Amino acid sequence: MKKIQLLLTIFFITFSTIIVEILYTRVFSMIYFSSFAFLMISLALFGYGLSGIFISMSKMSKKENSIQKLEYFILSYALLLPVIYKITLSARIDFLNLFSSPANFLILLINFVVLLIPFFLAGVSLVLIFSLYSEQIGKLYFIDLIGAALGGLAIIPLITGLGPSKIILLTFLIMMLLWYLISSIKQTKKIAILSLTVILFLGLFSFSDRIFPVIPKIKKREYLKDYQKNRIEYSKWSPINKIDIAPASKFKKNIWLNGGTQQSWLIRHNRLIERNKKPIVWFHQSIPFQLTKKDSAFIIGSAGGYEVLCALTHKFKSIYAVEMDPAICHIISNTAYAEYIGNIFNRKGVYMINDEGRSVLKRMKDRQFDVIQMVNSHPTDTLLSGGLSVAETYIYTVESFKDYWTHLNPEGFLSIVHIFGERLFSTAYEALREMQVENPGDKFFVIQAKNGFNYFFMKKGNINARDREILTEFSEKLKLQFPVEIIYAPHLKKDNTYTQIASDNHDELFRDSSVNIKPVRDNSPYFNQPNKIGQFSFKNIYIAGLARLMINNAMIRSNSVYLSILFISILFSFLLIYLPLKIKNRGQRINFNPIFYFFFIGMAFIIVEIILIKIFQLYLGNPAYSISVIIFSLLVSTGIGSLLSRKINRILKKNTILIITLILVLFILLYAFFLFKIIYSLIHFGLAMRFFVSLALISILGIPMGLYFPTGLKHLGENNKAMIGWAWGANAFATVLGSVMTVIAAINWNFTITLLMAALCYLIAGILFHLNLKKKK
User: Fold this and answer.
1) Which of these, 186, 436, 581, 738, is most buried using a 10 Å CB contact count?
2) Residues with Cβ < 8 Å from 319, sequence gap 6 or more?
3) Model confidence pLDDT, tens digit, residues 656-665
4) Is the pLDDT of residue 387 over 70?
5) Could you tell me the sign of the dihedral formed by the alpha carbons of 215, 221, 224, 227, in that order?
């Protein structure tokens, strides 16, 4: 195979594989929930590990016709992409009752095996190339990482421009063109196959929405009714969500996000303001604007804009509306729906920002507001399913409440509607304690619905008689709809969880509560997670409202998803790597050091990658783009490290890994304890400068991390090429195991502990490599 063919093969395999991986994550988030998407994709990635074992057991890398086999693998990979995608969309798995029937569990297993296939074929192709050309591994691994990096970036314009079904078909076409480029069969046959490919592609592409419908397999609110009755009048895939719009009533339209996982509304009010009608009052969205002077507001998660409308009807002069989804920002400002809602986002004094709310607020330095508002930023249905319990959020942490306090005008209000009122209160109260605010108990007013939301108000100033009057009347009006209670107010002396949180004995309450109501911090921002992973029951439950209904489902889903991946990862590593090696080399002494070396670097790499993604999201802002930028920065810098590996090995010789390990572990330790402080101090930079800073900070880790894999693989190629497949398999399995261990450690402890785990893994890997070199001597 020519060099250019070799490089293009590696590039497009990794480019397409990362696209398919991200694509399936998005599709599963639409048809199920995001946590189940993580489960299925994690299991599917075992295909990568199995590919290495397959190459080793078959001894294919030693055969003369290996390149021909490579052609068959790539052809199979391309042809099966749309077939497997169709099977995946057709299957229905009841994740909420996974073990309710043997048939349901069998469908899960079949779907799992089917999803393995493309990753297995891609992995086989890469392992085969790396085995055949191990002496060039530095350059080859560089191309591998660059392909993955560019694939991670390309998915953003592709998903918004084409949607998942057309992307799968485009990937199929690209891989068929790659096969045509490298195939050694007769030219006439190649042309015939390519011609049929193009015809098939054009046919499928033209009718992709009919052939590959992406619709929920479980009931998520009322979305399926709108879909089945053809009421969907607008559909769009954004970098974050699948967005559908359908009429709800004469004056309202539903905005469905990910098939009903979340919901917002477009309210028809195009002439409401011009007619000088009275301000909107006594809706929970309008209450903070009734409480304060009519000046400035900062709204996090503005979505369809009802909170903005409330502020406008109360004559607020300056309104900053922050929305993360760029497609929603486009819909409400640049389509016919903008006119439907009265062009409120194009009015003077309204500033729409497509970004993450906390990140925007931190960059505003000394700007202060009369109202900071968040309305149910996490959806009920997803929380009830356990789907978002393990999703991090930086808007409900001790540090975030310090930011809100700093950015409130004197007498300004923070207003939040959420289901987890007790933890919200404990987090906010802890922020005021740490800021040494006088009489923090006089700053809060909380109304709790019996089986619903908590209406949380925090004032930069004491709650006065007028505030009490308005909020009490609001509570009375809510009672006309459902049972509510003023659960905390400065003038009330109730013996409940809230007053205990506000007391000096709050630590005793946190220890006694089996539901986690401790204050949440940026270092472990899992606000909605009520239990530790591995906790299977709740004894003392000191919460009420909708959160009380949610906690058992959240506990079951988080445990079932993450513990099952953890168990399967360990089981597969034992059954498919350790045991086969033992059996194959029965009676011989096996040197497991190289296998464990690749296992630990795989685990360490994924831990660092995931934690960097989570931390730098706060720094860069909008997750629609920041995640891709972070992954791109890490993969490119790691690729540069791989490219430099040969030169660095020449300089440092046999001490390369040992020296690099000491340097890398030192920097990981520094990041573990000081990275948040670094990004806080640099967050005021502009977007371009923040991208540059992120690239620099990530590259400090990425470049040395990029030396481990090619150095280890080159060493194996020189001494025991048959072990390359086993090493690849160990690395891939460790990546799956490391990803779930990262989430578990981050939830149960924090990001610092998790990064210390990564440092320990790299340290062990460095020692193992050094010991292996001594054995060779």
Assistant:
1) 738
2) 296, 297, 299, 308, 311, 312, 349, 350, 351
3) 999 999 999 9
4) no
5) negative
> Amino acid identity of 100?
S
Backbone dihedral region of 259: left (phi > 0), alpha (psi from -120 to 50 degrees) or beta?
left
H-state helical runs in 621-682: 623-652, 656-682
Give residue 195's pLDDT: 95
- Nearest of 185, 279, 260 to residue 220 by alpha carbon: 260
Q: Which of 397, 391, 361 is nearest to 379 (CA)?
A: 391
The mean pLDDT of 568-579, rounded to a whole number, is: 82
Distance CA 563, CA 569 (A): 10
Residue 194's SS3 state is helix
Residue labelled with tokens 């490119």? 636
* CA distances in angstroms from 321 to 258, 292, 298, 346, 367, listed in the order given: 22, 18, 6, 11, 15
Tokens at residue 524, please?
A: 């472990």
Q: How far is CA 67 from the centre of its chain?
A: 37
* Mean pLDDT (whole number) for 93-105: 72
Burial class (CB in 10 A: 0-12, 13-18, 19+), 491: exposed
Query: Model confidence over 709-738: pLDDT tens digits?
Result: 999 999 888 888 878 888 999 999 999 899
C-beta of residue 315 within 8 angstroms of C-beta of residue 276:
no
Those residues whose C-beta lies under 8 Å from the C-beta of residue 250, and which sit 6 or more positions away, are: 268
CA distance 400 to 444: 16
Q: What's the half-sphere exposure (Cβ side, CA atoms, 13 Å) at 539?
A: 5
pLDDT above 50: residue 385: no
CA distance 458 to 429: 10
User: What pLDDT, on the 0 to 100 scale, is given for residue 537?
Assistant: 82
Among positive and negative, which fits the CA dihedral 722, 725, 728, 732? negative
- Nearest Cα to Cα of residue 430 among 530, 366, 507: 507
Cα 605 to Cα 607: distance, rounded to the nearest angstrom: 5
Alpha-carbon distance of 10 to 17, in angstroms, equals 11
Give yes or no for a contact between 51 and 127, defined as CB atoms under 8 angstroms apart: yes
What six digits make up the tokens of 381?
């249905």
Distance CA 145, CA 642 (A): 9
Task: Tell me what the pLDDT averaged over the chain comes to.
Answer: 89
What digits encode the pLDDT tens for the residues 452-488?
Answer: 899 999 999 999 999 999 999 999 999 999 999 999 9
DSSP class of residue 469?
H
Q: In angstroms, rounded to a whole number, what is the distance separating the alpha carbons of residues 541 and 744?
A: 22
**CA-closest candidate to residue 136, choices 3, 13, 9, 1:** 3
Contact between 695 and 29 under an 8 Å Cβ cutoff? The reply is: no
Task: Identify whether the C-beta of residue 432 lies closer than 8 Å to the C-beta of residue 443.
Answer: yes
**Is the pLDDT confidence value at 597 over 80?**
yes
Beta bridge partners of 524: 521
Q: Hey, how many other C-beta atoms are within 10 angstroms of the C-beta on 314?
A: 19
Which whole number is the average pLDDT over 231-258? 93
Report whether pLDDT(377) > 60.
no
Q: How confident is the model at residue 244 (pLDDT cuts 50, 70, 90)?
A: very high
Is the pLDDT score of 413 beyond 90? yes
Tell me the pLDDT tens digit for each residue of 759-775: 999 999 999 998 887 76
* Separation of alpha carbons 630 and 523, rounded Å: 18
- Report angle CA 39, 755, 396 to the nearest 5 degrees: 70
For residues 238 and 327, the answer to whether their CB atoms sit within 8 Å is: yes
What are the structure tokens assigned to 479, written together? 């009672």
Report the C-alpha gap between 218 and 737 in whole angstroms: 28
> Which residue is associated with the tokens 């009672």?
479
242-273 burial: b if 16+ Cβ within 10 Å, else e? bbbbbebeeeebbbbbbbbbbbbbbbbbeebb
Q: Please tell me the distance from the alpha carbon of residue 15 to that of residue 159, in angstroms, as a whole number.
A: 15
| pTM exceeds 0.70, yes or no | yes
**What pairs with residue 457 in β-bridges?**
415, 445
